[in-house]
Design a protein that fits this description.
Blueprint (H helix, E strand, L loop, with lengths): L1 H14 L2 E10 L2 E9 L1 H4 L2 H15 L4 E31 L2 E29 L10 E2 H6 L5
Antiparallel strand pairs: 1-2, 2-4, 3-4, 3-5
Length: 149
């Protein structure tokens, strides 16, 4: 019984897990990244996903370093489904050509929720020789570490 419930919860977590990042250009050297993650698998990785996307955006525009500005984070949960369990029993008695029956049963449902996380950040990009690059994240290094800095 416990295995069935746990496997149902695990399956729901897998199905409802995802992470998306939208990118909006603000200036030649600036973009806004908004990452939305849900499910057990992706909420803990939302920061690394955002950092990796910032590094990719920096390198794709010909810059080498970046800083993060106006960072916002939020977390919560979303409804992903119901886990329902039903049990019962029935009896039947045959008397002549007639059958008389009785059924008794019960069921219960448990709502399932997946954790969510949102990260919004403005990425300001610099070239290696610019003053703003000092102390900023090295995009190639961040990308090599898959955003886990």
């Amino acid at each position: 019984m416990k295995r069935i419930i746990m496997s149902a919860l695990f399956s729901a977590a897998l199905v409802s897990s995802c992470a998306t990042t939208s990118e909006m250009p603000l200036a030649q050297n600036m973009v806004r990244l908004d990452t939305n993650a849900s499910g057990l698998l992706f909420t803990s990785a939302a920061g690394a996903i955002t950092m990796k996307k910032a590094a990719e955006a920096t390198l794709s525009r010909g810059y080498t370093h970046f800083r993060l500005d106006q960072a916002q984070t939020a977390s919560g949960s979303q409804f992903v489904g119901m886990n329902t369990h039903t049990s019962g029993y029935g009896t039947a008695n045959v008397v002549g050509n007639s059958v008389y029956g009785n059924y008794s049963g019960s069921s219960f449902s448990t709502p399932m929720y997946a954790p969510t996380r949102q990260i919004g950040v403005t990425v300001i990009m610099f070239r290696a020789n610019e003053a703003g690059a000092r102390g900023a994240f090295d995009a190639a290094d961040v990308l090599a570490k898959k955003g886990k800095v």
